[in-house]
Design a protein that fits this description.
Helix content: 25-40%
Largest sheet: 5 strands, antiparallel
Number of helices: 4
Shape: globular
Oligomer: single chain
Low-confidence stretches: 1-11
Number of domains: 1
Structural class: alpha+beta
Strand content: 25-35%
Length: 116
């Protein structure tokens, strides 16, 4: 497996709220980063995380993914620690890891090693 409190970042002059979701009850593990702007960001972020999981990891529908298990929203700190201690990141410089972690918007931070 390879890279969580919500925080607000300025991206391209827009305030974006970051969310992190861990899919640890599903067939394949994943840690997803989601950036959302606008109202009702919690519902949008949850749905977007599932869509990212379906596109990049596994699943044919939102219902199918949720039947396996609901993703858990995590803190930024938790997600970064998972990312930092992932097998392929253990010998890297911390500054590089921070830059890579922060650069992922609406994507997969960590994925089940069996899918690589």
């Amino acid at each position: 497996m390879y890279l969580v409190e919500n925080y607000t970042v300025n991206r391209k002059e827009k305030k974006m709220k970051r969310f992190y979701y861990e899919f640890n009850k599903n067939e394949y593990y994943a840690l997803i980063a989601v950036s959302i702007d606008g109202n009702d960001s919690y519902t949008k972020a949850f749905k977007k995380a599932i869509e990212i999981y379906m596109k990049n990891v596994s699943g044919n529908s939102i219902e199918e993914v949720l039947q396996e298990g609901s993703p858990i929203e995590t803190t930024m700190e938790y997600a970064f620690m998972k990312f930092m201690y992932a097998r392929n990141n253990q010998k890297r410089i911390v500054q590089e890891l921070i830059q890579e972690f922060e650069s992922v918007e609406n994507g997969v931070l960590l994925i089940d090693g069996s899918l690589i």
